Amino acid sequence: MSTREQTLEDLLLNEDVLLENEIILFNDDVNTFDHVINTLIRVCKHTPEQAEQCSILVHYKGKCTVKTGPYKELEPQCSQLLEAGLSAEIN
């Protein structure tokens, strides 16, 4: 195996290891846009524009990835979203 092939193989293996989890936010008929937006700003550190875009995507598409990262960092954020009455899960 050439050095170039080995390097490419190592790079592909590293990409697999670096795959991150994501918090998926789901649509519901309970929470207002303002509540969702304010919660995303507070919990996920979104800008107002990001939070508004996510809330629109959730409303029309049914779900949206609102945060990616290592599970250890996402778990407390997802818990806070759930405590605020939003529907979310980590994938």
Automatic annotation (TrEMBL):
MF terms in GO: peptidase activity
Keywords recorded for this protein, A-Z: Hydrolase, Protease
Domain (Adaptor protein ClpS core) ranges: 22-83
Entry superkingdom: Bacteria
InterPro entries: ClpS_core, Ribosomal_bL12_C/ClpS-like
Pfam families, alphabetized: ClpS
Coiled-coil annotated residue ranges, if any: none
BP term (GO), one: proteolysis
Protein name (database record): ATP-dependent Clp protease adaptor ClpS
Organism this protein belongs to: Bizionia sediminis
